[in-house]
Amino acid sequence: MGSTDKIIRFILAAIFVYLYYGGIVTGTLGIVLLVLAAIFVLTSLVSFCPLYKIVGLSTCPAESS
Fold this sequence. Notes:
single chain, mainly alpha, 75% helix, 0% strand
């Protein structure tokens, strides 16, 4: 996973958490956003996305060459 991908995931996670705790998005959709935020942070920290592996996508420049 490339560094740009990690940064985008962290930013999206922060936005999702803000939307939930700011009371902008509530209920089931809010819980879904929190789960997605946790997944984004976790995959960024471990630098691996299982969905990318299934699809055969790589955003890491070192692996693509």
